[in-house]
Amino acid sequence: MKKQTVLIVILLLVILFSNVLAVTKTFIKEYTYQAGEADSKISSRIIALEQVKRLLLEELGTYLESETEVRNFQLTKDQITTLTAGIIQTQILKEKWDGERYWLQAKIEADPEEVVKSVDSLRKSKGASRGLEDADKKVKDALREIEQLKKELESEKKDKSKIKRYDEVVNELGAVDWYRKGVSSLHGRNLQEAIIDFTRAIELNPRDASSYVNRSFAYGTLRNDRQALEDASRAVELDTTSSMAYANRGVAYFNLYRDYNRYIADTTRAIELDPNNFMAYKSRARAYLDLGYTNQATDDIKTAARWDEESQNYLRSRRIRW
């Protein structure tokens, strides 16, 4: 009986100690946006939300840089902020609109150790990190253009073309927010949620290739191959330089039609566009293995193993050096 009691006490101490170690940090910020001539409640909220998120992510980035091993990744504070935007979800605490100003108070909660792991994973995934970098650039460009249009509309209040452009840019800003949510959902393996997020991004900005690319990946993972092919093909139309669009299209096309020639052609094009796209190497290796081209398949898996742990394990299991 005493032994059992001692074991229970030890178990409780271990649980309590583990909870202490898993410390969640909370950051709270607020932001007030002064509406312009072309602003509505909706546009003001979108802009205010983007600004308060940036303040929160910058504070989180500063903390991670000074208090965790993320400083060993040789990332700038801006890069940390960019990557965490695809990991952390923002919770709105309070908001108020008085017809002229939109005020928001929001918070983020994060386990620093888990965030560091996620940042490490994203920085190693060239496609994901590049997508978030592009999203960050779109946000900065949109905010600059919004500010410029606001100034111009102060003196040209009835300029319909500028008002139309203002609405378009605000929608682009909202689309980036949904895109980032989609990346976060994908990272958490919430595929159905990711599809909803990317769909909303596409509704706001139908010419955003990156949202089609990621929705294609989510559909493909769920084996909705027809929709995956449709999204990947649309992404290629919008951006002929998108390596992941070709990689996704190749996989979807093969799953639907078992066309090895098309499969290898698309994955090869993906590799030409991005020689670091390890997923394209793995996909092409699969085709080569099926066709009995063992040497070509092994070469591709060796290349993928530079970044991909699964490929490394495959080579180890066959005692192949890379």
Short description:
By secondary structure, the protein is mainly alpha-helical. The protein contains 14 helices and 3 strands.
Features:
322 residues, mainly alpha, 3-stranded antiparallel beta sheet, 14 helices, globular
DSSP strand content: 5-15%
Mean pLDDT: 88
| Major sheet details | 3 strands, antiparallel
Strands, count: 3
Structural class: mainly alpha
Poorly predicted residue ranges: 9-21
Strand neighbour order, sheet with most strands: 1-3-2
Based on CA inertia axes, which overall geometry fits? Answer: globular
Multimerization state: single chain
Output the number of helix runs.
14
Q: Please give the radius of gyration in angstroms.
A: 23 Å
How do the SSEs run, as a string of H and E?
HEHHEEHHHHHHHHHHH
Helix percent reads over 70%
N-to-C CA distance: 56 Å
